Amino acid sequence: ATPRRRRNRTEYFMTPALNKPIPEFEALATSGVKFTPQAYAGKIVVLYFYPKDNTPGCTTEAMQFRDHYKEFVKAGAVLFGVSRDNMTSHERFKQSLELPFDLIADTEEKLCHMFGVVKNKIMYGKKVKGIERSTFLIDGTGVLRAEWRGLTVAGHVDEVLKAVKAIKKTG
Length: 171
Description:
With 171 residues, this protein is α/β, with parallel strands linked by helices. It contains five helices and nine strands, in the order E-E-E-H-H-E-H-E-H-E-E-E-E-H.
C-alpha cells in the first residue's frame, strides 16, 4: 500500500472513509494498553463507541460483546469499547461486567471527533453533545470495511460478528 499523501494538516482529522485506510492515532485503554492501528496490523479491529459506562443500553451492549467475545477472537478480531469516560470509570465498568476486552478512555474526545460520533442530542429538554452509538470495523490492513452509526443494541453484535467472519473469509 502506498502511504497517503496529506495535502494539509486538517486531512489527518478527517472522518475515516469506507474502504480507505484509517489515519494513525494513539489511544490509551484499560489494562495499560496503548492502542494504535499499527499495533494491531494483521488483525481485524472492532471499535465500538458508546455514550457512557454503567448506563442501561451501554451495559447491555458491552455484555453482548462479552458474550460473543470468543467468537470474535476465533474470527481473528480484537474488540475495543470507546467512550468519553475516564480510565477509573472504565476499569470499574470492565471489572463489574467481567469484560474480556479493553476500553479506550477518550476523555478529550479525539477519537469521537475523528470518527464523527459526537452529535447534538436533546436530554431533558436541553441540547447536549453526546456520543452516537456507533461501531467501526477495520480489516487487517488498516482499512475501514464497515460502519454502523446511530444503531440500536438489539441484534447489533450478531451483525458485527457476521461482518468480521465475512472479512476473515475474503482476507
